[in-house]
Design brief:
It holds the Pfam family HTH_18. The chain is of the alpha+beta class and 306 residues long. 49% of the residues lie in helices and 19% in strands. The protein folds into 3 domains: 183 residues, Jelly Rolls; 49 residues, Orthogonal Bundle (Arc Repressor Mutant, subunit A), CATH 1.10.10; 60 residues, Orthogonal Bundle (Arc Repressor Mutant, subunit A). It contains 12 helices and 10 strands. The strands form 2 sheets. A 6-stranded antiparallel β-sheet has the order 1-2-9-4-7-10.
Amino acid sequence: MSEEILQRQNEIAKLIERHSDQDGVYKTAIPSLFIIHRSNVTEPVYRVYKPCLCFIAQGSKEILLAQERYEYGPADYLISSMNLPVIGRVIKASSDAPYVSFKLEFTERQILEVLNESEIQITPKENAKRAMFVGQIELPILDAILRLARLLDNPQDIPFLAPVYTREILYRLLQGQYGVALAQIAMEGSSTYRISDAIEQIINDCDKPLRIEELAELASMSISSFHRHFKEVTAMSPIQFQKQLRLQEARRLLLSESADAADVAFRVGYESASQFSREYSRMFGSPPRADIKRLKEKYDQRLHVR
């Protein structure tokens, strides 16, 4: 890693630490920009990633997408180009050298605007690409990230400059090694673009029965072609994708509402409480009641320590 890159990473790490006085995820004054601070390795966290760029200034993390594992640190960046249910865990952090990172969410429309207004030439690809990838950080990308991060120290400049620097980051990413894969989400005609509509419908109707015929029609594909392209993009089948969404939502409801497990099972779309309990245990390691009890006890301990 070059000295120039190391210097910029150190500046970003110090900047994030200044704006996050303790562990947590912080929404900043910059639209769609979050900073994360962790002083210890973490348990797996289950969530849906929106389209985003993730950059780690210090520490490292692993992301699981179905059975695929992505590990990245300061030498890399991670992109999720669609809404994807993932499992994330900080794997390198300490009180002396905390994990500090930067997540910038973006939209298909922003990608399309950069493509339309720049001279980047990308041809739509018929073959779908995985909607998550790790690339090696490059100096032009890092410079753009640093310019955006510096605005946290100059909030009066955010309204004017944040959109400019965000567009620059997307422009640099589109010029990088995974530019073609990122561009596909905004290019009509690509199979990746068509799969994105089906993903949105599954997310919006995750408590309803999955109708593969309707999803394939929405994507303008045959059923067999839809299954193949969906798995190429998400690393899982439509049913597996929906299951992860349902179980994540069920866990959120159980934690936030102290609701009955059987009631939550039906609310997220399960017809059988016993099937829900089995699949919940398989995903989270223990049945709903035991899992929620453990999480609440751990949260109470953390509050007590503070």
